[in-house]
Amino acid sequence: MNEALPLLMVAFFLGLFFLFLLFRVIAGLRNRGNAPEREKTTEVGFVVDTFHDLVAKLKDKERELEVLHRKAEERADVIETYNEYILQSVPSGVISLDRGLTITRINSAAEKILGVRAGAFIGKSYTELFGDPLRSLLRSGAVEGRSETHYTIHSGKDIRIGYSLTPLLDAEKEIIGRLLVFTDLSELKALEAQAELRDRLSSLGEMAAGMAHELRNPMGVIAGYTKLLSKKVDPSALHIVGSITREVAVMDRIITDFLSFARPTEPRIAPVDLPEIIENCAAHLERPDIRVLFALEGMPAIQGDGILLRQAFTNLVQNAVEAMPHGGELRFGFIANENAVEVSTSDTGHGIPESIRDKIFLPFYTTKDKGTGLGLAIVHKIVVSHRGSVAVESREGATTFRVKLPKSHAMNPE
Q: Cα–Cα distance between 320 and 348 in angstroms, integer?
């Protein structure tokens, strides 16, 4: 339509011009029917010159219109490109859908969060990309302000997302589709949980120190009396004394762990060979039915307390071994960036139910018959004292603990 406009204008003006000429010629014939032939020739020449001048001006206007049209198209292309740059640069995921809920746009942040490629889903129905609860929300046509939900992406990983779902409007404010904007909140929620747990453990640690010392004294007295009893009782009753001795030993181990947890932890920072520490922790396994795999080559050096880190990874190894009573596979790996190293410890055990996953780092929380519930609490305390974090991912037959430690202790001041 825009390209035909100049031609229509030319035709319009030419029509007007010829009407003007027609009326002028008729008027001239009436008024000067007997004028000399030379005057008629002059009149025609004037008309022809005027016509050529008008045509030239119309062509100039046409060229100006073409230039303006081209500039308008170029400006529209620039604006569209700029908007695309903005869309692809925002850190939040943005997905647009038309009225039929066909996907029309997926930005790079959405690709990263959902673990998909935009080209595989643009032009397809929302049901091919989304699972519940987002699928149900889109189907219902609901408008959602800022909300949060658990969501399982295509890889099977559970994440926590914050999202908003709004109508997509055109320049005339007409609804032309839906717009989903979302952010991965998993890391933020994990940091909040770690901070809350750290505060709770700090309070429990102060209480634990006093209780452990008070319990150890009477336990020492009981242990002394059982030794005396073992020398004086009838041999047929020795098994009773032996049972008392064993229970005292168990309680003493609990108190030792209790004190270890309650003791203030100030790491003595020095260069640490973390792969060597991890391999030494796994070397003492006495379970030939458990296969141990290491993928630690090339791990960058970190700074930390070697003794405390050895205790932390020993507890993680012990936890993994207890999760595989019938054997399995224990794997160690890592990923690193310029600031931190994340070590993963994975087992093929029975997994950790989601209902208790938030409680496993609490002291004295255990699902094991003979567990003290302090092993993972101590792991958490040691890692936090290194200004790091520990997280767990688990499903049936696969559990992974991820310990993230800064390369330099000075990088993360309190």
A: 8
pLDDT tens digits for range 223-278? 787 887 777 777 777 777 788 888 888 777 777 766 666 666 678 888 988 999 99
Q: Can you tell me the distance from the alpha carbon of 389 to that of 380, in angstroms, rounded to the nearest whole number?
A: 8
- pLDDT digit string (tens) for 290-319? 888 889 888 888 888 888 899 899 989 988
3-state secondary structure of 260: helix
DSSP three-state, residue 298: coil
Nearest to 166 by CA among 198, 143, 182: 143
Helix 274-283 vs helix 306-322: angle between axes, to the nearest 10 degrees?
Answer: 40
DSSP character at residue 10: H
As a whole number of angstroms, the distance between CA 148 and CA 188 comes to 13
Coil, helix or strand at residue 183: strand
pTM value is 0.51
87-146 pLDDT, tens per residue? 777 778 888 888 888 988 888 888 888 888 888 888 888 888 888 888 888 888 778 778
Per DSSP, the three-state class of 284 is coil
Cα(102)–Cα(10) distance, integer angstroms: 44
* CATH, range 268-414: 3.30.565.10
Q: For 341-368, what is each residue's pLDDT tens digit?
A: 999 999 998 888 877 777 777 766 666 6
CATH level 3 topology of 186-264: Helix Hairpins (1.10.287)
Indicate the domain borders of the chain.
Answer: 5-88, 90-184, 186-264, 268-414
- Above 60 in pLDDT, residue 37? no
- CA 113 to CA 115: how far, in whole Å? 6
Closest CA to 384 of 359, 364, 409: 409
Which contacts (CB < 8 Å, 24+ apart) does range 275-280 have? 275/299, 277/306, 277/309, 277/310, 277/313, 278/313, 278/332, 278/343, 280/310
